[in-house]
């Protein structure tokens, strides 16, 4: 049985609590045939692991906008867990198979007109996804090939490195305030850790979505590259990060992120309670309904 506060998928100790993996054996004889490329795909995410390089490619494939539904989040956490537990995998590149969209963030329909039980389950899945990604021992590179608001931005921010397609039509940011909702403390902490307090404070209060060039100036993404070069660049960055011994990099990553991870772990149930209370308010439900209507009107 899993302890309370932990999804059933997560019966192993989470990555951030585990000792660093030992580096690959230097005794591997040269000239052995290359390990095969393993792939597993579920409804919303496709993963391909190249065992020779130790790099997995994770592609979001949930059209129209890769919104983070309960099903998506669960598949995401399971995929991360599978890779984390596979000793052949040392790094993962996260990108989208949907043109022009990285991820539209949390699925708003999961937060509208549902039961308290549903909101509880949904928020636990959001937390689980972040704990796994932010606390991953693997090198994580986001290849942001489209718009990436709110939860989509959180996924990017949780990676070790962010490369974005150089297209001013693609924007990224934590725009929760524009929806009349508030980014929780661990979204904020993750943001602050990337861009610093002042930029995060202004951007969060205004709910800004930054076009790619501005996001780069603010340090919200590390690099901009032409869209057609994005995957090539992501692979090059990954190779650079994997050139270091895993144990040193992993322990350093853990040292940098542990306080923020621990804070959510310590307040997980309280955070769920806060979310459920907040999202259940009629005024918040009204804001979300209006926002969804605005999206539909903008389309027509
Ligand atoms: N959730 C659910 N449905 C969505 C979402 C979403 N996040 N985003 C878009 N959709 C739907 C649209 O309503 C539309 O539906 P339909 O086809 O039925 O009309 C369909 O997806 C396609 O959308 P668009 O026509 O708008 O597609 P575009 O390609 O023109 O634009 C964008 C794509 C840029 C992603 C645009 O859809 C957009 O801006 N979406 C809203 C993104 C957003 O604001 N997300 C914030 C979600 S909240 C969050 O992630 C964090 C919450 C933290 C919790 C706070 C505690 C209370």
UniProtKB/TrEMBL annotation:
UniProt keywords, alphabetically: Acetylation, Fatty acid metabolism, Isomerase, Lipid metabolism, Mitochondrion, Transit peptide
EC number: 5.3.3.8
GO biological process, any: fatty acid beta-oxidation
Catalytic activity: (3Z)-hexenoyl-CoA = (2E)-hexenoyl-CoA; (2E)-tetradecenoyl-CoA = (3Z)-tetradecenoyl-CoA; (3Z)-decenoyl-CoA = (2E)-decenoyl-CoA; (3Z)-dodecenoyl-CoA = (2E)-dodecenoyl-CoA
Cellular component GO terms held in the UniProt record: mitochondrial matrix
Record keyword Signal present: no
Compartments, as annotated in UniProt: Mitochondrion matrix
Gene3D superfamilies cross-referenced by the UniProt entry: 2-enoyl-CoA Hydratase, Chain A, domain 1, 6.10.250.170
Gene Ontology molecular function terms on file: delta(3)-delta(2)-enoyl-CoA isomerase activity
Annotated metabolic or biological route of this protein: Lipid metabolism; fatty acid beta-oxidation
Main function: Key enzyme of fatty acid beta-oxidation. Able to isomerize both 3-cis (3Z) and 3-trans (3E) double bonds into the 2-trans (2E) form in a range of enoyl-CoA species, with a preference for (3Z)-enoyl-CoAs over (3E)-enoyl-CoAs. The catalytic efficiency of this enzyme is not affected by the fatty acyl chain length.
Quaternary structure (record): Homotrimer.
Family named by the database record: Belongs to the enoyl-CoA hydratase/isomerase family.
Protein name, UniProt field: Enoyl-CoA delta isomerase 1, mitochondrial
Organism: Copsychus sechellarum
Gene from which the chain derives: Eci1
